[in-house]
Amino acid sequence: MANYSICVLPGDGVGPEVTDCARRVLDTLSANGGPNFDFDAHPAGHGIFLAEGHSMPDTTMAAAKAADTVLLGAMDVAQIPHGGGEPLGQLRQDLEVSASVRPSRTISGIPSPANDIDCVVVREVTEGLYSRIEYMVNNDMACAVRVITRGASTKTARVAFEQATARQKQGRVTAVHKVGALKLTDGLFLEAAETVARDYPDIEFETRNIDACAMEMIREPEHFDVILATNTFGDILSDIAAGMAAGLGLAASGCIGDQWSYFEPVHGTAPDIAGQGIANPCATILSAAMMVRHLGEAASADAIDAAVFDVLAAGGVRTGDLGGKATSTEMTDAIIGALERRLG
Ligand code: IPM
Ligand code: MG
Q1: What is the DSSP string of 256-305?
Q2: pLDDT, tens digit, for every residue of 168-200?
Q3: What SS3 state is found at 1?
Q4: Best of 80, 88, 237 to mutate for ligand 1, by most ligand atoms within 8 A of CB?
Q5: Would residue 116 show up in a list of annotated catalytic residues for this protein?
Q6: What separation in Å is there between the alpha carbon of 266 and the centre of ligand 2?
Q7: pTM of the predicted model over 0.90
Q8: Catalytic site residue from 4, 12, 130, 225
Q9: Is 135 a catalytic residue?
């Protein structure tokens, strides 16, 4: 059986708890004839910043690059002062993972505002307004530089069109912009997307202004298949999509580059419940499934997805955010049980 090295970045808050749950699920695959995973945990985030003054130690970044892929919990980036680094942005930039793939869909047994949503936000994550170029002009004026490059826009667009092809849903990519206000940056982003679109004649390509898109996602969410967006617009739209579907507790993501990749839940560190063992582990477990799929183990990934959906549909074991009383461990045990039944 194949063997994969996984660099785990547990991070802050509930991050260590939910990555432990995902590791247990991956170990269940190995114990049932699936691939093997060698986990290697490294510090990143606010905790290590307080201890050592760096939020992304060089040793952590080297380990992330050396492993087959990376599983991240969550990092408390808001607590790190300017000058202390932005570890998530750095991880994305250094691993050159232009596109974050963020699927959202309604799930049987989980209440959601939309009847039917099944879309993927493909978000550029290395530049745009989160380029990490930010400075004070004087005491009363601060600037952030919104960087858009043809290279990153093209890579992200290609991931979006590949997703639209693989999903076999509507076969539609919606590129989101505000070109009326951001003529040069969003002009270049749209030009790159249009160029990629020519390579995919079977996929419908359309554009939307960010504000109109946000409204349409709430009024007509079933319209959307793959949404292609720059960094900040995609950050916001992926939370809207998650909220319209099954909530942030179930929102998984994977960042894909040419050479490196990493996978993480869309949710943050949830400091209000950190350390209590009650965080919903599903978003991280579903992110681990995306990771396993990216490694080429589609059958194992399908089995993890199905095990999570089995437990959610059965309804008896749920964490507090889903209206239940289960701990993270109990929910993970239930998912492992369902996975063993599927693999057995
Ligand atoms: C996300 C998060 C991060 C982002 C934060 C924590 C910096 O909101 O991955 O969506 O905006 O990229
Ligand atoms: Mg976000």
Answers
A1: E-SS-EEEEESS---TTTTTTT-S--HHHHHHHHHHHHHTT-HHHHHHHH
A2: 999 999 999 999 999 999 999 999 999 999 999
A3: coil
A4: 88
A5: no
A6: 6
A7: yes
A8: 130
A9: no
